[in-house]
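The following block was generated as part of the benchmark described in Methods. Ligand: magnesium ion.
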Amino acid sequence: MPAIDIFAHSISFLKDHLWKTLHSRVCEVLETDIHYVITVPAIWDPKAKQFMRRAAYKAGIPNEQISFALEPEAASLWCQVETDDKLSRLSEPLTKYMVVDLGGGTADITVHQKMGDGSLKEIHKASGGAWGGNEVDKCYLQLLENIVQAEAMDKFKREEMSDYFDLLREFETKKRSITRDNEGKITIKLPQSLCRLAELDGIKMAAKIERLHDTTKYCWTGDKLRIEKVAAKALFTPPLEKLITHVKKMFEQPEIQDIEAILLVGGFSECDLVTETFEQSFPDKRLLIPKDAGLAVLKGAVRFGHHLYAFKTRIARFTIGAEKWRLFEESHDDPARKIIMSGQEYCTCIFKKIIEIGEEIPAAMTHVEKSHPACASQVQSDIVLFSSTNRHVTYTTDMGCQKLGTFTIDLPKSESISEKKYTICYFFGDTEIHVRVKMKKTNEEFEKWIDCFSTDD
Ligand SMILES: Nc1ncnc2c1ncn2[C@@H]1O[C@H](COP(=O)(O)OP(=O)(O)OP(=O)(O)O)[C@@H](O)[C@H]1O
Ligand SMILES: [Mg+2]
């Protein structure tokens, strides 16, 4: 099934659930009374956010009733009002802290500062990677595959799907009992169907485990796999190593060296091994973990819905520019980009920078441009934005520069260019890139969100 349908169904389920609850407890709530907040990792690109917007729209939520909260921001907002003694220091003016949101799929890291006026400021651009709790599950599945071999594992996933989900659920529970102490064993019951598929080659499970040449770490008793705590803890090493290496690298940067606190949120930060690893890796930083760390993002999202402008500044994650033409300059422009129109030579694919990576962008910042179509017969104008992780970009065809998305502007019917003039106001400081367009002729104003899917060419 297309992913969009799965996401739309999930959002629709949550929406229906909310309505059922509301109908049973409160009367007189209208569809339009509700503003929906969808949380997304801060490291998601505009295309992923647009995908969520489309899925929500498909689930029956109109565009103007949705906002996006960036997950570390939501968590940070929530921790501002937590009454816990340790956390209350986060709300002191000018406090700087790193927020590490550790979920299932992603680790999402940013640095925030509380400002004197009560607002929050992002002081380091969001970064992270796929180093969440799911990586531990992957390591566990890899261990099972080493025991039963790939063929049996593949067949198990395809043919015994409900047992496969049971196996994941069982591990989810067991995972929580893997703590920093090294004593004892973890016992995991494996589904009969998996053992049967594995033993089709005539080799019993016990013998298969012996083949791992690590009988001190793993053994088979009855229908259960027993793993020594030390070996179980090793399943957490790959994501945690990547995460710690990344955070250490961040602390090498001068602008965040003075940060004394790390706020850990997200379900995976409830894991004792994660806490231990952070304590050992950053002994000179204060580690703050709110109660119910796994719910901080959710609770913060509700607060965000009431304070959409709590974050006054964000840091640009890319250099962004619009694709333009300008007069061809014989001395240095590439002849391959030259085109001639009405006898005039132009250079195409010029990257006109609007935002530079690492730049502070006030949430209220707007970039206003007056524009018009190239010829009077045009019924639409396409504004194409490009992005790059390089600071300086000359042409949109430069290495590392890629199409970010398009704004298609419908122009009024007219034979004259001057009647098709418009003003476009970009908002880059919000959680999504959007524009407000005002047509000169009609004074009509409308809002557009960047369309990243038109770039699939
Ligand atoms: N006590 C615990 N010990 C180990 N892992 C845990 C514990 N509690 C939760 N997790 C892990 O945390 C992850 C879920 O965290 P969370 O609910 O924050 O994820 P998410 O927000 O849905 O994912 P993402 O932020 O990646 O979109 C799962 O991988 C789960 O196994
Ligand atoms: Mg999360």
